[in-house]
Amino acid sequence: MYGWVPEEHPNSDMAFQVDGVYYLTGIRWRDNEPSLRVQTDATPSAALVEARDLHLRFRIDVETPKRCVGRVERSSEGSTHVDCVSPSTRGRQCERCQIVDNVSAANMHQAHRKGRDSIDQRMAAYLSHPHRLYVAIFRDGSTKIGTTRGSNGGQRLVEQGAWFARYVAHVEDGFLVRELEDLVSESINLGQAVDTRKKFSGHLQAQTNSELQSTLEDLTPKVGQVLKTQNRDGWVPLDETWSNPMLDNAHWKDLVAYPAALTHGAHELTIHSMVGRLAACSRSGFEETFLLDIQPLLGRPLERGDFELDQLVLQESLF
Ligand SMILES: [Zn+2]
Known about the structure:
The chain has 6 helices and 15 strands. By secondary structure, it is of the alpha+beta class. The longest helix has 20 residues, at about 95-115.
């Protein structure tokens, strides 16, 4: 047994009540609500803390080694995050976690080419489950095709920070859905990933919601066309729209890029809302809502304390 215990409910108190450094090791989405994984030396398994309205005041400790952010394990039950307490040696992970994640990514992407008998059994079990194919658009206008496990719901689109999306097919398993995804990508030159820099700049200079919707509206039938030309069993067309729950949230208007690097220094922030790994935050003394990418913080040792904060210097807008 692998002990698939559901992760405990977010709790904003306990994780911050210890001395020494703490680490943010990831973002977990459930029911469209983001939580941050918080690890300390005293609690090797991370506690989940609701990201919304979370106040953070920290100094990056550059002396202490960074911590591995853990890895994902997949089985017939779905995917689950596994915490790790090793220092990170390769990017944000330790060697072992990185190898596990790389093998699993390679298995996932080659599953439909290699066949289900030649991949890891737990991965095969994970993939032998209905999936959906979707087309998504981000606020800068970038589009992609993607897949998600499960027949309904799911957190894949909020996790990635899509703004609008359309589910276009319900597919019997994760092998076929990846074949169809590749086919669409190749046929109409539609990518399978969007760079975070594009997502970030999309919030600073967003296309209007109606522009985005109309681009998606034009793209969807082209995808449908590609799928229809395939005489394949195992999938049915879907026509379900999705929009980001933050669509009308005031924090996602008039954002300013946080004018300091999160790799060093002392910072104070209150997170108001998140879209993917990007957070809309405020800082006392400033009226702006700042946009920042949480990822650079992940795994870094953060010290609590009453130290002096780094000055923020706001640039005059060039536009
Ligand atoms: Zn690790």
